[in-house]
Amino acid sequence: MTTQRRTTTTLACCTALVLALGATACGGPVATAGGGDKALNGQTITVAGVWSGTEQKNFQKVLDAFTEKTGAKTQFVSTGDNVSTVVGSKIEGGNAPDVVMVPQVGVLQQFAKKDWLEPLSRTTEKSVDTNYAPVWKEYGSVGGDFYGLYFKAAHKSTVWYSPDALDQAGVKPPKSYAQMLKSGQTVADSGLSAFSVAGEDGWTLTDWFENIYLSQAGPEKYDQLAAHKIKWTDPTVVQALTTLGKLFADKQLIAGGQKGALSTDFPGSVEKVFGPEPESAMVYEGDFVAGIAKDQFGKNPGTDLSFFPFPAVEGGEAPVVSGGDAAVVLKDGKNQKAAQKFLEYLASPEAAEVWAGAGGFLSPNKKVDPAAYGDDTSREIAKSLTDAGDSVRFDMSDQAPAAFGGTKGAGEWKILQDFLRDPSDPRATAGLLEDAAAKSYEG
To answer: What PROSITE patterns does its record include (predicted)?
Structure first.
């Protein structure tokens, strides 16, 4: 999952978080880091992750709260997108960080198989068993050992829309995928295209496919395909591509048609709905869409923009596809005791509420106080994520080897871009996906 994929924007309604007093400008609950015994005075931990910009600043508030609580000093190291390469070089150089925030299930598994990771403490494990849906522990475990604590999550089953655009077209948020396309046609008839699609960024197309596939084929098939236990030529894949292809083939529904979509990157797709000169009524992507709309175009969640859950396809269940960043402890870190204490802190509702108050954050922790989130839209999305329980499924392409699921201009990204360009042969596209998947999984 790239930094762009996770996004660097926020939904913040606050401009500051006063940790020492435990108050937020949003009027949320006290999110205090007080009450610690300073047991880690004099110790320092290094935390590495992909975050930069606003995300890094907000995570620093969590680090500062941990320092206030325990006395431990912290240092954050931004790795950029290539986490595994950077961490590997630091381990080889004898300068391994103590904690890494890992943005992909596949990378976490890679670290575990290289024997880089220390299992998490029983205290952390107990917190996850109590406060998280079991699926999150499964995604953080390898070979029966629990290595990864999912601290920050993304909800990637949200369709964002302009309330004014839907009102002018006389349509309401749809309850089914077929209804969404029908409503989109009504919107197109009113003068705007229905959807802005970020085809220039292949990862957005994988997210479209994954939501359709999870709803249409069901979670069991989704898990099998994610692990390459069934082939991409399976009839369920062809069926999902056929469903997606109907949208891609309809030039009235997509802003600029296929050619326009292929020249639109993710931020541009948000601009086409919420920018100064709207071209579309809706854009599908994760909860982070709202951050871009707010920060770049001054749109306020709940008034200027809203969302509806990605609708169920052909009688299936509405999908909940997620992503997230898991905290892991490296064996070669210099301060494992403090690192384990840090993860115990991250597993607490208290730590999550620090960032929730700052915005641009969702927690899988069911005990996080909803009032900690800065606006009703964030609260609604967070509730949707935790209410989904074990039906949540992690982004499929992030579970795959990077050569297939995470490389620009190659693998799934490139094949789905070609499918957007010409969606006439879903079966042939499935064959190309299987060829690419087989090579990457064998590698």
So the answer is: PROKAR_LIPOPROTEIN (PS51257)
- Alpha-carbon distances of 246 from 149, 252, 291, 309, 422, rounded to whole Å: 39, 12, 30, 20, 11
Same fold, 3-155+322-393 and 158-319+400-442: yes
Sign of CA dihedral 373, 374, 376, 378: negative
Structure tokens at 245: 């292809």
pLDDT of res. 106: 87
Question: Rounded to a whole number, what is the largest CA-CA distance in the chain?
Answer: 66
Cα separation, 76 vs 128, whole angstroms: 24
Q: Give the domain ranges of the chain.
A: 3-155+322-393, 158-319+400-442
Instruction: Calculate the alpha carbon distances from 198 to 28, 204, 284 in Å.
Output: 35, 6, 9
Task: Give just the sign of the alpha carbon dihedral 202, 208, 212, 218.
Answer: positive
Best CA proximity match to 337, nearest among 123, 130, 131: 123
What b/e string do you get for 112-137 counting C-beta neighbours within 10 Å, with b at 16 or more?
beeebbbbbbeebbebbeebbbebbb
* 123-174 confidence digits (pLDDT tens): 999 999 999 999 999 999 999 999 999 999 999 999 999 999 999 999 999 9
What confidence score (pLDDT) does residue 91 get? 96
Amino acid 310 reads F
DSSP category for residue 276: S
* Strand ranges for 91-219 from DSSP E: 99-102, 117-118, 141-142, 145-146, 149-155, 158-161, 193-196
- Predicted confidence (pLDDT) per residue in 387-405, tens digit: 999 999 999 999 998 889 9
Rounded mean pLDDT, 198-207: 97
DSSP letter at 349? H
CA separation for the pair 345, 288 (Å, rounded): 25
First CA to last CA distance, the chain: 20
User: pTM of this prediction?
Assistant: 0.86
Q: Quote the CA–CA distance of 354 and 64 in Å, as a whole number.
A: 10
- Give the phi and the psi of residue 321 in degrees, each rounded to 5: -100, 135
- Annotation: CATH topology of 158-319+400-442: D-Maltodextrin-Binding Protein; domain 2 (3.40.190)
Helix (H) or strand (E) segment spanning residue 74: strand 73-78
